[in-house]
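[job 0412] stage=fold_complex status=start
inputs:
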Amino acid sequence: MKMTRKTIIYSTLAAVLSFLTCLSSAQSVKPATGDLTIAFAAEATTLDPVKYSAGVDTYFIGQMFEQLVRPDPSQKRINWLAESWNVVESNGKAVIDVRIRKGVKFHNGDPLTSRDFEFSQKRLADAKQSRWSHLQASVERFEVIDDHHFKIHFKEGDGSYIADNLHLWAMPKAYFEKVGEEGFAKSPVGTGPWKFVSRSIKEELKLEAFDDYWNKTIRPTVKNLTIKVIPEDLTRVAAFKTGAVDWIDAVPPAMIAEFKKLPGVKTATVVSGNNLFIDFAEHVPNSPWQDVRVRLAAAHAVDVDAIVKAVLFDQGERYVQVGKGGVGYDPSLKPYPYDLNKARDLLRQAGYPRGFDTNCYNLTTPREPNVKEMGEAVFAYLTAAGIRCKVQGLEYGAWINLGRRGRNGPPEMDGVISWMWGQGVPGDPGTPWAGHLHSFVAGKGWGSYSYANDPELDGMIEEAKRTMEPSKRELILQRIGKLKHERVLGGLTTYRPLVTIAWRDKVDYTPWPWPGFWRNLQQIGLKQ
Amino acid sequence: MIRFMLRRIGLGGVSIVGASIVIFVISRLTGDPIVLLLPVDAPPAVIEEMRRTMGLDLPLWRQYLIFAQHAILGDFGNSYRWQTPALDLVLQRLPATILLACAGLLFSISLAVPLGILSAVYRGSWIDTFGKGFAMLGQSMPGFWVGLLMILVFSVHLGWLPAFGHGTAKHLVMPAIALGWYPVAAQTRIVRSAMLDVLDSDYIRMGRSLGTPEWLLVCKYAFRNAAIPLVTMLGVYFAAMLGGAFVVEVVFAWPGLGRTVVEAVFARDFPVVQAGVLLTSVLFVTANLLVDLSYGVIDPRIRHAD
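[job 0412] stage=fold_complex status=done
writing structure:
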């Protein structure tokens, strides 16, 4: 390439300017100082980003590791380690073209490059290491263009890549190869704002602010952070009130009003990424639930608003198919109004003038606040309408086992079940609907927890799975939501739990969503 | 005595092997751990692959033999959930639970013994009534409730004791009381009734007639004999403390074994359940062995009879 004198002068000037800008911004960042102790109600089981399986597992990972894309405090998806990315087509196949930020370092000082993401994708796809290998099945190959530019080639379109923030976590290839899987799990190294110091399972995680963190503006300002694990609600509250900790998550619903009035205490109430619903056994031959009028009757029989108010102390946000702000959210969809007479009338029309008996399965493990009591209230409403519930409480393991399709032998979900499926924040129902709305297809991964069987919806869900273009996904998911609502399929959507976080005035804190649904401590420090 | 000891140790070994078989089979009856380890949308092929990797596709008897071979060498496998060696996880937490159980037991005995003795000596008096009432109060209140109440009073309102955690003697006070108060009633009753029997015996009456001071009669001659029923039960109480520690550990965020094992049961984390229960069995058997051996020390007649 021929360079003119003008080009050289401009390039030199630009380089000097950018160097000065970097220097000034680096100098303007005050080093983090002080100590802060906070408490979580639950803890992650792993510190390895390919080994997590539930939302709670990202509580710790999310402090140390980062992804290409993430939601910001307003739940808008923003580029994070990705400087830019777009979906292109090559030979009729989808390709995600990603350029990553320059100047990002791992906690051990290694620079972040495309090779690290290539390694991350490889680990994620390896079923022996990863819990998420199935989500890499559509990837054909990973192409490194240069240190900060790579492409992911797909065999077929995969909307889950878009829905789940481009899946990949920045993991240090060289460090991992040096210390091995066990060493990495014991002493994880990422690019996140917090460096790992130590961990005592069921007790605490100690972290230290990463001085060389790439983001000079959005970062922690406290040096040492201790996250205590205090599962008992009242003990966590006592720890906060006695000043042993200065920040807690999951303020018990019954105490939120009191917390909001406490002097010197701030609170934030945010919507969790979990979506609760009541599902019906439409798959059982000759079941009343195969009749849409029965499902509609159940939908009109439950006063969800009253349950949210009385049982959850208003700590739930009603949603219809997709939560506010989620992909496919449709404000025109309204909740089924509570109408006991209509419910009874619909049952009569369906041939059940005296109602019928059914098994109703309730989750008793507190995966969400007051979830057991909420289930009991729903079943009481159903019984009042004539759908007489024989309530059976199940702990988490038995509950998830009962819900799963394609097992060998009994028990089988044969009535009503109180269920939930996280759509994340801001939320994308693509994967959840593939699991609990698409009809069950043995061995293919479709409908693993689904009792619905609607070929039209199946086709649309498969189309959504293939679609990577965000605006097209939005439209498809809206169409599915509408149909799902009309036919009362894939469950009666009820509410998304709200989470209240409390912190003392001396703490400077901004809640960031995902990962760990608002437990991300991206911006926390002590007020000067 | 040595023959007696060897016999007890042999029986203890048989109990531990029996416990290992029972816990191995029962834990597997609780359900499939794989669905809890993978994301809900994991397809069947991935589930089967994981089952194979973890050896859960083998017949149960083969799984047990593999487990037993490794367990003898101290290898209980990796925790499914925490992905660290199960024995390490259990051993890290065991000292905290033993400390809590010992403190709870110490608290209960140090209350039950004086209360039982005083209730027997001053039978029918207000001391007897107070002793029984205080002990019954502990039995009537669940440990978690006592714990939460103490947190409210001594941590939140008075600020005397830390609400959670461990590490100092102060941290131990409330968990020990919450754990140890419950058995005080039963222990007091044991001591009281044993003391009443002994105080009515001929040799005590003889002691009195010879002018031996009452305190010496009660504390040295009567209590030594009356202690045998309580000592017999100590092994059982210690095991009960280990089992009951779970609730107290949750309330006080105490990093003990009980909480770890109970959560492992719900998570179908077989290696941790097996390691935890087997180690607890060893502790239980050892405690009972020590109790058996202590008879000889307390009552030489037992030693000589053997």
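[job 0412] summary: Chain B has a mean pLDDT of 87.
[job 0412] exit 0
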